[in-house]
């Protein structure tokens, strides 16, 4: 580093804190076009912001390590899981989903969990949430679902005026009931990012080199347990310190109080998938633990704060399409769509060469000469190597015994008809929501807080007809829930009148 200030191309600046001016006797000054220092300072400031993520904009993150803790070689050939004790570097970014970059951490929301494992066979990304299910199972509904949780196009308000949109979206797409049961229970307002769990939600495949595979779901569980705020404490904290979670995570790591999670999979044989009572590619459903118990594969520790938030966390790009050999996608339509949408979003937000940015760069060697040039390419760009595949001058390197990329799988044969997918909703879509309502029943005061959380939101909806439809909707989960919700909400409406 130079011991004095310079311009961006190294030329020394005598005084970076004063513009060059043509001055008259009375103290006025005209700035000069030749003052490159002033022009560059202003021009760069104007361009400091990159587009914020359309979802998952507000986040905290840190680096750490993933350690394989249990032998998994019977289910996957992934190198980072090949040996007990093997460690790989990791980056984790934990976010809210709907609100903007400057929003409060403790707003009620699903929390996203982007995780990049820098393995010796390339980057393995998992994009998880702190709830194990999602609101829709058809990816074409994703933008509408998110917009219904964001700002109103006329008022630009995100609170009470949007209640109608949120409510009307979910009434019109009732498959989201299970996810709503997660969002409105205490886990919708975590006390700390160190005390949340993360779930893949999607079904993935663990594959082996012999061509066999298993379906899996990933569970990442906080060693110190899940801890939540009540709605009141979350709201108060949002006012007092909107960056509460960010600060908590940073300070804990700074003090050496490293957060740790145990990492598990549920494992299903493909034969069982054909006859299992739930569609395993439906992201609104879990696999009940009693059917598919958790099996530990690893441990995750976050132990290093970012040196620079922008370069380490804001420029980070995660995608479920980043899969190492031994892990493969399943036929979950939401997963398939996200495998397109995430890199597409990164190309828009960061540019076509975003994988070259330090925080995204693979620690395993990269040889991808069919991806070159483009804006902001700051690699050696493969020098004189052929820019087409199949050259006799420099044949494509094939590592003897090398594993093929997992996204190219030959496990399944598909025969079917091309048709529009209508996501019909039946009683089975409410069963797991009911199971969760019962889980809440086993935790003191939790059902009551759940009812209060939904009622606090719903009481802002001005239409009695809409409120009534919501009571019926939740009655399908449990009649008593519907009744209690009506009682508490209408009391709030009456009190506010
Ligand atoms: P079990 O009856 O075996 O166990 C209940 C599970 O509920 C716990 O393992 C815990 O998951 C989770 N849980 C506890 N408190 C809450 C809460 N406040 N909000 C959300 N989840 C909570 O579970 P089943 O597998 O039979 O599923 C019953 C219901 O539990 C499901 O319908 C689902 O809504 C929920 N659940 C199930 C998960 C699964 O993958 N099977 C994962 C998470 C929730 P954890 O240990 O992960 O904290």
TrEMBL record:
The Catalase core domain extends over: 6-397
| Keywords of this entry | Heme, Hydrogen peroxide, Iron, Metal-binding, Oxidoreductase, Peroxidase
The reply to whether Oxidoreductase figures as a keyword in the UniProt entry is yes
Q: Which domain of life is it from?
A: Eukaryota
Task: Give the record's family classification.
Answer: Belongs to the catalase family.
Tell me the protein's name. Catalase
Q: Which organism is it from?
A: Trichoderma ghanense
